[in-house]
From TrEMBL:
Keywords, sorted A to Z: Signal
Protein name: Copper chaperone PCu(A)C
Signal peptide: 1-18
Amino acid sequence: MKLRIFIFSLLLSSSLFGEPASDIAAPQKRTEVLDLARKLLTTKSVETSVDDIARKNPFNPLPVVVESSGPDKADSPAPVVVGTSDRDILAAIAEGVRPTGTMKLGDTQFLLFGQKKLKVGDVLPIVFQDTSYELELVGVDRTSFTLRLNKEEITRPIKL
């Protein structure tokens, strides 16, 4: 009796499931899939310069150059003439330096320019009247900061 049930179940299972399907797709289907893969893997050439890529890279270690915001050219056609002493130049540049705030991390005080953080002793490159200057950050307080150009220093309030 057990043998009859076994043979019956064996015949029934083979008739229900039939012949197993092939694991390999038809050649026409494979070529369609391969053509789609080639289309997706082809890269388009992007025309960008190295400078554009470096400027857009958030991890680029290049220093931030802050342009001094003097009077607009439309308001006054004549360029502003600044005295030639370091004190006059520093005073004119310091008016255009506008930090966004300060931050204290441990014992170190930072001056913030957006995402850029400067601590005491860091150099801030500035382009003013087509001449580049390097201002040294001498001091940072909660409400003010001090800049140095050569031997001249000026303290400015942080205006938010």
